[in-house]
Design goal:
By secondary structure, the chain is α+β, with helices and mostly antiparallel strands. It has three domains: about 150 residues, Roll (Ubiquitin-like (UB roll)); about 400 residues, 2-Layer Sandwich (Creatine Kinase, Chain A, domain 2); about 130 residues, Four Helix Bundle (Hemerythrin (Met), subunit A) (Up-down Bundle), CATH 1.20.120.1560. The protein is built from 25 helices and 17 strands. The strands form three sheets. Strands 9, 10, 11, 12, 13, 14, 15, 16 and 17 form a nine-stranded mixed beta sheet that branches. Strands 1, 2, 5, 6, 7 and 8 form a six-stranded mixed beta sheet that branches. Strand 1 and strand 2 form a beta hairpin. Helix 17 crosses helix 18. Bound molecules: adenosine-5'-diphosphate and magnesium ion. The site of adenosine-5'-diphosphate has 15 residues, from strand 9, strand 11 and strand 14.
């Protein structure tokens, strides 16, 4: 078998390939573009395109595509072959610098929330040379950004890059204040831990709900769930192990640093974590990882479910966004250092994050809001919809000591003077309380755990980077004008802790009492997408995001529209699927079983003087349930009709929350009850126990 070190990145046009295939002059010029954003001239673009094409063809590629991330959250691609007719009837393979740098997909059907209607009918894709091109399934993929001709972002990548730039600008101001002139840039890094479910493909194909919506819309609880906790970190079944090995191999070929794999809490649930990367690359890699996960599953007779809550009553799937800020000189700004100087700087960045998360709770919450993730936030074993920060007892005690100007009771019993004292040592907290926090400090990074498993990581990081940039801007404004830096710094950190400590919570985030406590503290608890999404248009959020150049006002409004529209459409599909399954699968099956039971009962009664209590009760209960199902299906159908008559997207999303979703629950309840009384032979699709324990 080939060695990993040999095939790792073999499908990626990375530094190694660039060096090997480009002239020194072209390579240097491209590097300047990659590292410093210097515009590429057309002769260089032509040379790079030619080298990419030759390399790709040698690897068996026949097509190329610009690969982009429209606002729906998925990725988009349109493949063109390299062929070009030659005069003698043959074809030659061509790919120009122009085709590499810019594409014009006829992509007018992507949602733009009215943006393109207002500005320009078409959008174009522009090569992002910081993310390497790669080959997948015989096509050369070129990572690109997607914009309107007037420069409005129509994707998730452009605002992500802008948010990284905003944070870079403000962090550099702060570093200068600490006397640091050697750092030229700072970048954020992310390691996204990805959870997923695997189910048997044959069973999947029998469930319309999974096919249409990615989650089960019906299903009684199985006799065994996750209560034994025997799946978490348990030994991996052969079929799953084979899948994981194949997945790793495919990801490694694409240069993705897949590192850790294990079983998760729920049966059939697993996790994959890569080694962290610069955020925009981590975002590209995570999108690619999700695609490859699905594709590899097909080869193994499996289906990979990335929905946040494929099974009601069972743990959902999230994505943990491990996030840190570091300098081009290799210093992690969220890592406590060893000298007083490093520690004061660390505390300032820590304070900036605390303030950002408190000031922009709503932006963080809505950055992960989708119809799917709504089922997870606040539900079984998931972070609640309330945002809070876990710092651990020791770090919290240090902040308290600073705030109250009192001695810290840890290792040094002295007042802390920032910029003078060494920070007391504190250990990384790995308690269970930590694991229930939506935003936990884990030693040298923050882990934002509210992301849903199918979310693009871009939105969360756009809002997080922007919010932290805003804290740092305010800090820099204040400190740049200070007469005495150390005193001003101490004062600023103290005040920030005092003003924002309400967001710090080290207790059990899954405890009901926390929700009440959070309310007392004035923290927001935005339960659904319909509740939180409109908040992106609040003046405070628009002002902040536009002032850092992360979004234009028009982009913000269009995003709100798109996300709400997505929410409404997703739930509408689910509602229609439920009506269809209830009428065409569940009702006929239950009715047939009740009828067969009734005939059996009549036959028995004919044959002998018997009471047939079981048969009678079953027929009666099932008949009552079929009536309830029929009624509930009619109600739900009427609700969908009503929804279709609502034009205003805010009203429509509120209607989905207040009427459609409760009506769906009302249909599910009698159907799930009927499942428990109906013979397995008659039930029209695989049940929870089979789906959850069916992969051997
Ligand atoms: P766990 O969360 O299970 O304790 P780790 O903390 O080792 O595991 O890592 C989880 C994820 O965080 C991995 O993807 C890892 O690469 C990433 N990670 C580790 N250090 C950093 C960092 N400084 N910045 C961003 N991500 C990081
Ligand atoms: Mg983790």
């Amino acid at each position: 078998m080939e060695k990993i070190t040999e095939y790792f990145g073999s499908m990626v046009f990375d530094e190694r390939v660039m060096k090997a295939t480009l002239s020194e002059k072209v390579y240097k010029s491209l590097k300047r573009t990659i590292d410093r954003g210097v515009p590429l001239d057309s002769s260089v673009a032509d040379a790079v395109a030619a080298a990419m094409k030759d390399w790709a063809i040698e690897k068996g590629a026949t097509h190329y595509t610009h690969w982009f991330q429209p606002e729906t959250g998925a990725t988009a691609e349109k493949h063109d072959s390299f062929i070009s007719p030659a005069p003698d009837g043959r074809v030659i393979m061509e790919f120009s610098g122009k085709e590499l740098v810019k594409g014009e997909p006829d992509a007018s059907s992507f949602p733009s929330g009215g943006l393109r209607a207002t500005f320009e009918a078409r959008g174009y894709t522009a090569w992002d040379p910081t993310s390497y091109a790669f080959i997948k399934d015989g096509t050369l993929y070129i990572p690109t950004a997607f914009c309107s001709y007037t420069g409005e972002a129509l994707d998730k990548k452009v605002p992500l890059l802008r948010s990284m730039e905003a944070l870079n600008r403000q962090a550099l101001r702060i570093l200068k204040l600490f006397g640091n002139d050697t750092v030229r840039s700072i970048k954020t890094s992310v390691g996204p831990e990805q959870e997923y479910f695997l189910v048997d493909a044959e069973m999947y194909n029998k469930r319309k709900d999974l096919i249409m919506s990615g989650r089960t819309l019906f299903g009684a609880k199985p006799p065994k769930g996750q209560e034994m906790e025997d799946h978490y970190f348990g030994s991996i079944k052969t079929k799953v192990a084979e899948y994981m090995a194949d997945l790793d191999r495919e990801l490694w070929k694409l240069g993705i640093l897949a590192k850790t794999k294990h079983n998760e809490v729920a049966p059939a649930q697993h996790e994959l974590a890569p080694i962290y990367k610069t955020t925009n690359i981590a975002a590209d890699h995570n999108q690619l990882t999700m695609e490859v996960m699905k594709k590899v599953a097909e080869k193994h007779g499996l289906v990979c479910l990335l929905h946040e809550k494929p099974f009601a009553g069972v743990n959902g799937s999230g994505k943990h966004n491990n996030w840190s800020i570091s300098t081009d000189t290799g210093v992690n700004l969220l890592s406590p250092g060893e000298t007083p100087y490093e520690n004061a700087q660390f505390l300032l960045f820590l304070a900036a994050v605390i303030k950002a998360v408190d000031d922009y709770q709503d932006l963080l919450r809505l950055s992960v809001a989708t119809a799917g993730n709504d089922h997870r936030l606040g539900a079984n074993e998931a972070p609640p919809a309330v945002i809070s920060i876990f710092l651990g007892d020791e770090l919290t005690a240090i902040l308290e000591a600073i705030e109250t100007d009192s001695p810290y009771g840890g290792t040094v019993k002295e007042k802390m003077k920032l910029g003078v004292d060494v920070l007391p040592e504190f250990s990384k907290d790995t308690t269970d309380r930590n694991r229930t926090s939506p935003f936990a400090f884990t030693g040298n990074k923050f882990e934002f755990r509210m992301l849903g498993s199918s979310n693009s990581i871009s939105c969360a990081n756009i809002h997080l980077n922007a919010a932290v940039a805003e804290s740092l801007r305010q800090f820099a404004d204040e400190l740049e004008g200070a007469a005495d830096f150390n005193t001003a710094l101490h004062e600023l950190i103290r005040r920030t802790i005092k003003d924002h400590k309400r967001i710090i919570f080290n207790g059990n985030g899954y405890d009901d009492s926390w929700i009440a406590e959070a309310e007392k503290r004035g923290l927001s608890n935005l339960k659904t997408t319909a509740d939180c999404m409109p908040k992106i248009c609040d003046k405070k959020n628009v002002d902040m995001l536009t002032s850092h150049g992360v979004f234009t006002e028009a982009e913000i409004f269009s995003r709100c529209d798109i996300m709400l529209d997505n929410y409404v459409k997703q739930v509408r599909i689910e509602a229609n699927t439920m009506v269809d399954m209830a009428r065409r699968e569940i009702l006929p099956a239950v009715m047939k079983y009740a009828a067969d039971t009734a005939s059996a009962m009549a036959a028995k009664k004919n044959a002998a003087e018997v009471a047939c209590k079981y048969e009678a009760r079953t027929v009666a209960e099932l008949s009552a349930l079929t009536d309830s199902i029929d009624l509930a299906a009619a109600d739900l159908e009427a609700a969908v009709d009503k929804l279709d008559s609502i034009d205003n997207i805010l009203e429509a999303s509120a209607f989905v929350r207040d009427t459609l979703l409760p009506d769906m629950d009302a249909l599910r309840a009698p159907a799930d009850k009927a499942e428990t009384l109906t013979s397995e032979e008659y039930w029209p699709f695989p049940t929870y126990d089979k789906l959850l324990f069916g992969v051997r």
